[in-house]
Design brief:
CATH class of the largest domain: Alpha Beta
Distance between the termini: 36 Å
Strand content: 15-25%
Radius of gyration: 30 Å
Number of strands: 22
CATH architecture of the largest domain: 3-Layer(aba) Sandwich
Bound molecules: adenosine-5'-diphosphate, magnesium ion
CATH superfamily of the largest domain: P-loop containing nucleotide triphosphate hydrolases
Number of domains: 4
CATH topology of the largest domain: Rossmann fold
Strand order of the largest sheet: 11-12-10-13-14-9-15
Helix content: 25-40%
C-alpha cells in the first residue's frame, strides 16, 4: 500500500491500536508527524570493530560470516532461542535471539551480515543477544519514546514519511526567506536531521544546517502566529467602558503616593479599557515595584463602571495575601470581594460561585481554579493574572475566554525578560513596564558566603530576629533525600532550633502542607508571631512581608540567577536596610562562585535576566513552564538566541499580509494557534 503524509499511523501495517495510542502520546498521529519527531540523540554505527577487540558491555557494530545454520531450541514455556556463530578474521561471535523464531530463516551459512548490539564477554567467549541487522554501518537516530514504542518503529515511520515526502511535502518557508537566510530546504532538512551522514559539529555538516533551518522555522512561524493572534485580538470588541473615573480619587485615599511609573502604567491600561478593543497587556515590573497597586486601581475602576474583575495568583498562599491586600484597598468603596480557596468544600465553593454569577461579588480572587467551567461571571470585564510566568499560554487564553464578551486581560510578571525573548513569548501582547521602585527603598545588600561562615550567619539571624525583623531561610528540598544533596526544610529547621537561642520562634513551610496550615504560618510570619521561616521556594513569588529584612538562601548554587533574584525580592520591601545571604553548599565549583558574584553585583532584574540568558541559554526562560506554547520542539537548544533574533526580524520583515500566499506556512501557523487553545 502507498502511504501519504496524511496516512494515519493506525492504518499502517504492523501498528495496532496499542502502538497507535503510544504514538499518539508522542504527538504522532499521521505519518507527517513522525518527521517532526526529531531525534533525541544519535547512535554511531559506522565503525565496525574486530570481534577480538569487542569489550564487555560495549555497543558495537560487527561484520562477519555465519558459520553454521541457525538452530532453534525450546527452553521452557514462553521462552525459545535461536542461536548461531559468526566469524571474522579475528574471532568468533555467538549470536542469540530470544523469542524470535523467524530469525532462523533470515541467516544462511556462509553469507556475510552486519550486527549491532551490546557485547557480552566472558573470557574468550563473546556473544551478542538480539542484535540488530538493519541500519548497521550508518548513523542511526534515537528518539524520545514511550511504553510499547521503539526507536526502530519510529525509524520505520520516518522512512515511509520521507518516501512520501519526496512527492508531497510542501516547503513551508518562502523562497526569498530561504535564500536571504541561507537555509536548507525542508525535505533535505528532514532527511539530514533523521539520517545524518556525519555528526561532527562543524558548521557545514548537513545536520548542522538542518537544525539551523528547523530552529529558524520554529521561531519564524511562532513570530508570525503571535502577530496573527494579536491582530485577531484587536478586532474583537469589548465592553463599552467610557472614561468616568478620576484615578486621583483612588490615589488620594492611599497611605502613600503612587510612583510616576505606577500612574503611567495605569493610564496605559485605561486607554485599552476605553478603546473599545480587548485589552491584552503584559505588565512587567521588577520585584517590589508595586504591581498590586496598579491592579487595585484598575479593579476599582472597572467595578466603578459596574463590571466585575477576576484576579488569579499562582499559589494559594499568594491568593490569600492578595485577598487581604485588595480587601484593605477596595472594601472601603463597597466592592464585595470573594476568595475561592482550593481547600473549600463543595458547598462553600458553590456559595462563592453563586455570588460571582449573580454579580453580587465584584471581585473574585483565586488560583487558576477560578478558571474551571463551573465559575460563571455576571459581567466580567477585567481579568488579572499575577506572576504570569507561572501560568502557561493555554491558561492565559482560558482566562481570556471566560465570558461571552471577552474581558480585558492584564498579565503581571516580575520575571524581567530581555526584549527579544519577551517579543517571542508575548508577541501577541502590549507591554507596559514598571521601571521605578517606590521611594525610600534601600537596595538589598547581597553577601555570598560559604559554609565556613555558618556561625556568623547564625549570629546575624539571631540579631535580626531580636531587632524585631523577620528572616526567611530557603532550602532546596522538603525532606532529606539521599539522591539530592541539599539542605531540606524539615531537617534544617530542627538543626536551627538547636543552634539558635530558644526565644527565636522558628516555623517551616513547604508546598506539601495543608492549605490551612500554610495560611496559619504565613500570617504568623507576617504578623510577627514567627521570627524565622524555613521554607522551600513556595515563597519565591509575590510574598509581601515588609518586616522581613534578611533572606538566607541555602545551596544557592542550585538556583538560577533569575530565581535568586525573585527570592531576594522577598526582602527590601520596607524602609529598613535588608540583606540577602546566598550560602554556597558543596558542588557547583568555580561557575557557581562566578554566578553568585554576578548576582551580588547588581539588583537590576533586567540585567540579571540577561546574565542568566548568557550563561544558561534561552531554554530556561523558554521552558514549557514559562511560554506554554507546546509546539516548540527543537528551539530550546542552547545557543539558539541569535537564531531567534534572526527569525524574528525575518518575520517582521515578511509581515502577516503575505502569509495567505503560502498555504504550507499558513497551515503551520494555524496549527500553532490551535495548539495554544
Ligand atoms: P510587586 O510588584 O513585587 O508585586 P507589591 O505590589 O507587592 O510589589 O508591592 C511591594 C510593596 O511596596 C508593598 O508593601 C506595597 O504596599 C508597597 N508599595 C507599592 N507602591 C508603593 C508606593 N508608591 N509607595 C510606597 N510603597 C508602595
Ligand atoms: Mg506581586
Amino acid at each position: 500500500m502507498d502511504y501519504t503524509l496524511n496516512t494515519r499511523v493506525s492504518e499502517i501495517s504492523g501498528i495496532g491500536t496499542h502502538r497507535a495510542a503510544g504514538l499518539a502520546k508522542l504527538g504522532i498521529a499521521v505519518l507527517e508527524d513522525a518527521l517532526r519527531h526529531y531525534p533525541r540523540s544519535y547512535e554511531d554505527r559506522r565503525r565496525f570493530i574486530n570481534i577480538r577487540d569487542a569489550s564487555d558491555g560495549e555497543r558495537a557494530a560487527i561484520r562477519g560470516t555465519v558459520l553454521d545454520n541457525p538452530k532453534w531450541s525450546f527452553i521452557r514455556k514462553g521462552m525459545d532461542l535461536v542461536r548461531f556463530n559468526v566469524a571474522d578474521d579475528t574471532g568468533t561471535l555467538a549470536v542469540t535471539y530470544f523469542n524470535q523464531q523467524y530469525q532462523v530463516s533470515k541467516f544462511s551459512r556462509g553469507e556475510e551480515y552486519a550486527f549491532y548490539g551490546k557485547v557480552q564477554r566472558e573470557g574468550q567467549f563473546i556473544s551478542m543477544a538480539n542484535p540488530e541487522t538493519e541500519r548497521v554501518g550508518m548513523i542511526v537516530p534515537v528518539y524520545a519514546l514511550t511504553a510499547g514504542i521503539t526507536s526502530n518503529l519510529i525509524r520505520g515511520l520516518v522512512d515511509k514519511a520521507l518516501a512520501a515526502a519526496v512527492t508531497e511535502l510542501a516547503e513551508t518557508l518562502p523562497d526569498d526567506v530561504l535564500t536571504a537566510h541561507n537555509l536548507l530546504g525542508l525535505l533535505d532538512s528532514y532527511r539530514a536531521i533523521h539520517f545524518p551522514d556525519a555528526l561532527e559539529g562543524d558548521d557545514d555538516t548537513e545536520l548542522h544546517r538542518a537544525r539551523r533551518r528547523l530552529v529558524f522555522e520554529e521561531f519564524f512561524t511562532l513570530s508570525l502566529a503571535l502577530a496573527v493572534k494579536r491582530r485577531r485580538g484587536e478586532a474583537q470588541s469589548a465592553y463599552k467602558i467610557t472614561r468616568t473615573v478620576n484615578y486621583e480619587d483612588f490615589y488620594s485615599a492611599l497611605p502613600f503616593s503612587p510612583t510616576d511609573a505606577q500612574k503611567r502604567v495605569v493610564e496605559e491600561a485605561e486607554r485599552d479599557l476605553i478603546s473599545g478593543k480587548v485589552m491584552n497587556r503584559l505588565l512587567q515590573g521588577d520585584v517590589g515595584s508595586g504591581k498590586t497597586l496598579v491592579a487595585a486601581a484598575l479593579i476599582w475602576r472597572v467595578c466603578a463602571a459596574g463590571y466585575q474583575a477576576a484576579f488569579m495568583a499562582p499559589t494559594e498562599i499568594l491568593a490569600e495575601q492578595h485577598h487581604k491586600t485588595l480587601t484593605r484597598l477596595l472594601a472601603p468603596y463597597g466592592i464585595r470581594i470573594v476568595l475561592l480557596r482550593g481547600s473549600m468544600n463543595a458547598k462553600e465553593k458553590r456559595e462563592v460561585r453563586k455570588l460571582i454569577k449573580s454579580g453580587e461579588a465584584r471581585l473574585a480572587i483565586g488560583t487558576h481554579a477560578l478558571l474551571t467551567a463551573n465559575t460563571q461571571f455576571f459581567k466580567l470585564a477585567l481579568t488579572i493574572a499575577d506572576e504570569q510566568h507561572r501560568f502557561g499560554v493555554a491558561q492565559r487564553i482560558a482566562l481570556a475566554s471566560k465570558s461571552v464578551e471577552r474581558p480585558g486581560t492584564l498579565l503581571m510578571s516580575a520575571t524581567p525578560i530581555p526584549r527579544t525573548l519577551a517579543m517571542m513569548m508575548y508577541g501577541d501582547l502590549d507591554v507596559s513596564v514598571l521601571d521605578e521602585l517606590p521611594p525610600g527603598r534601600q537596595s538589598v545588600k547581597t553577601y555570598p558566603v560559604t559554609e565556613a561562615y555558618r556561625e556568623r550567619v547564625n549570629n546575624f539571624i539571631t540579631k535580626t530576629a531580636a531587632s524585631g525583623s523577620r528572616v526567611y531561610i530557603i532550602c532546596p528540598a522538603i525532606e532529606d533525600n539521599p539522591n539530592f544533596d541539599a539542605r531540606s526544610v524539615t531537617t534544617y529547621s530542627e538543626q536551627l532550633r538547636a543552634a539558635l537561642p530558644p526565644n527565636i520562634r522558628i516555623a517551616s513551610l513547604h508546598g506539601k502542607m495543608k492549605p490551612a496550615e500554610k495560611d496559619e504560618i504565613m500570617s504568623g510570619f507576617a504578623d510577627g508571631g514567627i521570627d524565622v521561616l524555613v521554607s522551600t521556594t513556595v515563597v519565591e513569588v509575590g510574598m509581601d512581608v515588609p518586616d522581613a529584612t534578611l533572606i538566607v538562601i541555602e545551596n544557592a548554587e542550585r538556583f538560577g540567577l533569575s530565581q535568586l533574584h525573585q527570592l531576594r525580592g522577598r526582602v527590601g520591601r520596607g524602609a529598613r536596610q535588608s540583606y540577602c545571604i546566598p550560602v554556597l553548599g558543596g558542588g557547583g565549583g568555580q561557575d557557581a562562585v562566578e554566578r553568585l558574584k554576578a548576582f551580588a553585583a547588581t539588583t537590576d532584574g533586567f540585567r540579571i535576566a540577561e546574565a542568566d540568558l548568557r550563561m544558561r541559554g534561552p531554554g530556561d526562560f523558554f521552558g514549557n513552564r514559562q511560554h506554554g506554547l507546546p509546539e516548540l520542539k527543537i528551539s530550546d537548544l542552547q545557543g539558539s538566541m541569535s537564531m531567534m533574533k534572526e527569525a524574528q526580524s525575518a518575520a517582521e520583515h515578511f509581515g502577516v499580509e503575505r502569509i495567505e500566499a503560502y498555504p504550507a506556512l499558513r497551515q503551520r501557523i494555524e496549527r500553532l494557534l490551535r495548539s495554544a487553545e
